[in-house]
Amino acid sequence: MRLRKIFLIFALLFSVTTLSAQSAKVVTDILNSDKASMGQVCYLVAVNQGYIKEDASYSEAITALYNRKLIPYMVYEDTPVAFVNLAYLYSQIFDVKGGLFYKLFHGAPRYAYKQLKYDGVLPENTYPNKLVSGPEALDIYTSCMMEYSDFQLSVE
Length: 156
Known about the structure:
Layout: H1 2-18, H2 24-31, H3 38-49, H4 58-67, H5 83-93, H6 100-104, H7 109-118, H8 134-148
């Protein structure tokens, strides 16, 4: 458990630095959330893609993703996020190669979830409709960056 906390702190620091000058309040809100909200996750995705400025609200993030058809319908900002939805949103912003069904169904949520789980980005003890905590959302965001982006962590 102690190792997990150390890793989570590392993941948090890594996430904060990769999201540039993102408001400390937003990161604190996410970390303190027992259940990550659609507003929080959409905010991470929208800021990452440059769809909104860092001082935008969660509602503006949801609207930006809806207008770009990254989410199929408008949701309340405090709606809890399931792993399947988180996997889908993150697969839209990271270069997930995916298997046959992932490609065939254009990264549909079900296959995005399966692909991220297969790639080891999602924890083994999850299932699609399980709700994500705030720290898990940031941890998975960091794992996606390490798995699917050009980011290299060098230790010398």
